[in-house]
Design brief:
The complex is a heterodimer of chains A (414) and B (119). Chain A is mainly α and 414 residues long. Chain A contains 19 helices and no strands. Helix content of chain A is 71%, strand content 0%. The radius of gyration of chain A is 26 Å and the shape is elongated. Classes of the chains: A mainly alpha (414), B alpha+beta (119).
């Protein structure tokens, strides 16, 4: 029975928690009573057998325990009666509560944790803790900070939710697009944090990318929104290259040099399907377009066989909705592949001349790469050196140093 | 629940006409809020040039000219509203005319017991 309940906890605890937060109006009380309910389940189900609806049993039991806890804690009889009445009113739940109501609770939880009135780091910490169920220690390790810092962030966030009365609700139609954008941005931040961790710096960091993908899948399941699909697709496509993109020592391998047989075709297929669904809706946004670009790469057997014209076209679309010098830079690299290297180089020079990205190491690295391929070794060296002064992450620095060495040796032919 | 909405904006960013327009629109907003049972009070304030600061230290009352702090945006007015939760307060704040030029800070009001009724 203990094992069964253990498995049930892994599968259901987050859903039960989400419902309890709604019923009890308090994160901490919900967590406490949920654990008590699971503990009670082990005992009582052993003795009296399995209930018809275990999840409803757990929620109901937790609710009663909450009433008890509130009774014990209340200092005045008046306050106690009021609290108990409120919990009773709030939680008129019946055993046959429809599955979709419980799904709504998980959505409520996600939207509440990602409320814009909370600081971005607090949104991330709350989501990982309350939605994903990670411990404070795990989150701290993942973000290279201390458990005390994370714990404090979460305490402050819960205090703000309570005192400013951030509602535990799925946002109204009018607010929905902005609020969803907030949620997606948290998920993507978590993913990117996990993505960079794969450079081999620490093997003990929890699988943040995995958590982000799991979150992404949950959101798409509860809300088949095109941009949510686009983000999930983008994450899946990035993830599909995980083994191919780094050496065991943690050096990264450029897309053009990756062993494509190591790409995870299942993830690619799932990503591609999501991109198609999202594009078909005609309400897609920037995540979808970025995913589409990634999908074009995933479709190609090699760099040479990549549909660069399609990629440039997609960057054109991206620039219309989210113009930025970084997107211009990526487009320039694609133009170099589609047309000729000099054309791409001219575009990059234009961007650098305008003053944008002059401190962005990847802009100089891209310039260096094209110069190198054009045989303009002197210029390439200058650009790689500039990139090296700006690059901060070890794997990138190693890569740039290697390129510089190759230039120096004169052994790098075109 | 009560919320105080503090309206900040750069005083020089307004022409006379814009200011007059803002007052008119704000008054209209107050009536709309009152119709919804949400209006508890509101007012524009005279500019920071009219501000005076008072501090009492060691039993001495010190009076100085000027606002509490020199800032790029100054407190120009306030609303006191009744709202069910922060999202409703945010929705109200978004309707405040000055929000398009400045910033509205939302603070939940701490309900202190034992205060006297309004005069």
């Amino acid at each position: 029975m203990r094992e069964f309940v253990g498995e049930l906890y892994v599968r259901e605890s987050r859903r039960v928690f989400a419902t309890l937060v709604r019923l009890l109006g308090d994160f901490d009380l919900a967590e406490e009573t949920m654990h008590e309910a699971f503990a009670a389940a082990i005992e009582q189900w052993q003795q009296y057998g399995l209930p018809a609806n275990p999840r409803a049993w757990l929620v109901s039991t937790a609710r009663f325990k909450a009433i008890d806890a509130l009774r014990r804690r209340s200092r005045s009889e008046e306050m106690r009666d009021a609290l108990v009445r409120r919990v009773d009113e709030l939680s008129s739940i019946n055993a046959e509560r429809a599955a979709h109501d419980i799904e709504d609770d998980r959505l409520r939880l996600i939207f509440t944790c990602c409320h814009p009135a909370l600081a971005p780091e607090a949104q991330i910490a709350m989501t990982l803790r309350e939605v994903c169920g990670l411990t404070t220690e795990q989150i701290a390790v993942a973000f290279l900070t201390s458990p005390a810092t994370i714990a404090q962030r979460i305490v402050r966030a819960k205090r703000k939710i309570r005192e400013a009365k951030i509602p535990y609700e799925v946002p109204s139609l009018a607010d929905f697009p902005n609020r969803l954008a907030s949620v997606l941005s948290v998920v993507y931040l978590v993913f990117k944090e996990g993505y960079s961790a794969s450079s081999g710096e620490s093997l003990t960091r929890p699988d943040l990318s995995g958590e982000a993908i799991r979150l992404g899948r949950l959101i798409v399941e509860l809300l088949p929104d095109p941009e949510a699909m686009g983000l999930l697709a983008l994450m899946l496509l990035h993830e599909s290259r995980r083994t191919a993109r780094a050496t065991p020592e943690g050096d990264f391998i450029l897309l053009e040099d990756q062993d494509r047989s190591q790409w995870n075709q299942e993830l690619i297929a799932e990503g591609r399907r999501l991109v198609e669904r999202s594009l078909a809706s005609r309400r897609f946004g920037t995540y979808t377009i970025q995913a589409a670009i990634s999908a074009v790469h995933a479709d190609a057997a090699s760099t040479a066989e990549t549909d660069w014209a399609q990629i440039v076209a997609l960057y054109d679309v991206l620039l219309r909705s989210a113009p930025s010098p970084v997107v211009e830079l990526n487009r320039a690299v694609a133009v170099a592949m589609r047309d000729e290297l000099a054309a791409g180089l001219a575009l990059i020079d234009g961007i650098l001349r305008s003053g944008e990205l002059s401190d962005y190491h990847l802009a100089h690295a891209a310039r260096a790469d094209l110069c190198r391929r054009l045989g303009r070794t002197g210029e390439a060296r200058v650009a790689y050196e500039r990139a090296l002064t700006l690059a901060q992450q070890e794997p990138e620095r190693r890569f740039l140093q290697k390129r510089l060495q190759e230039l120096g040796n004169g052994c790098y032919g075109i | 629940m009560k919320y105080m909405l503090l309206v900040y904006s750069a005083e020089e960013a307004w022409t006379e006409e814009e200011r007059a327009r803002c007052m008119a629109d704000s008054t209209e907003l107050c009536h709309e809020l009152a119709a919804q049972g949400r209006f508890l009070g509101a007012s524009p304030l005279h500019p920071v040039a009219t501000a005076t600061c008072v501090r009492v230290r060691n039993g001495n009352r010190l009076t100085t000219d000027g606002p509490f702090a020199e800032t790029t945006e100054q407190l120009g007015g306030y609303y006191l509203v009744e709202a069910a939760n922060l999202d409703e307060a945010i929705a109200i704040a978004g309707r405040i005319p000055a929000a398009s030029k400045g910033t509205v800070e939302i603070r939940p009001v701490f309900e202190l017991s034992g205060l006297p009724p309004k005069t």
